[in-house]
User: Fold this.
Amino acid sequence: MTENRSNPVTEARRDEPVLLPPVDIVEDDGGITVYADLPGVPKDKLNVRADSESLTIEGEISLGLPEKMQAVLAEIQAPRYRRSFALSRELDTEKSEAVFKDGVLRLRIPKVEQAKPRRIEVKVA
Amino acid sequence: MFPSFFAPAGDLFAELDRLSRDMQQLLEGMPVNIRAGRRGGFPALNIGHTPSSVEVYAFAPGVDPSRLKVEIHKGVLTIEGERASDLPPASDKVNVYANERIAGSFKRVIGLPDDIDPAQVEATYRDGLLHVSIKRRADAQPRRIAIQ
Assistant:
């Protein structure tokens, strides 16, 4: 179990269908940046949890559907997104920063200072 | 109850049913919407009908609303736009591990019912969701006729 049970507000039930949000993941010398598409999720229904071992992104779609609506096409068939990633030790989740705009989450997780690359001199024996 | 976009939680049989219908269509070459690919496209669409309107929800995250074009012409709704890539230019300083998000221009076309009123359309963009609400013509509404 990698999930933290302390936030029941947007916690999904295990058997509930969920959508897997598409992501872009980029690493540079300073850390890792994750971009995730979560269209239809208002800011207060987004839940990003990270500890030293894992990252979980979860969001609930809010459409504000009119009454008496009959669905004729549904390409999005679950009301919730969820995706988890395993993290490694050199990432400093305490210092991560998240921005959520127009349904796109941008999460930056920096590396701990000593994990940033150092060039290792190769000596000729 | 009206059918909803979202299948009830954990409805395995509904999912199996959908899968078998998809398979059936593949095998028998049954007709599908001429304007949709096998699994739709970008943005993903949910469409609903109410007695007085047609509601279109397009899941288009990270799009500048000023570059989003929504048009109704001859009973066909077109949603067009462009999304910039968030990936940095390739270099040996950067590793890209996942590139699943669609970038570039997109377009989706939706056939509308005959009774819509192209003059009464409202489009809003919020949280990466484009909602287009098109009213049906008043004269097309069901009217109870009094019996003399």
In short: The radius of gyration of chain A is 18 Å.
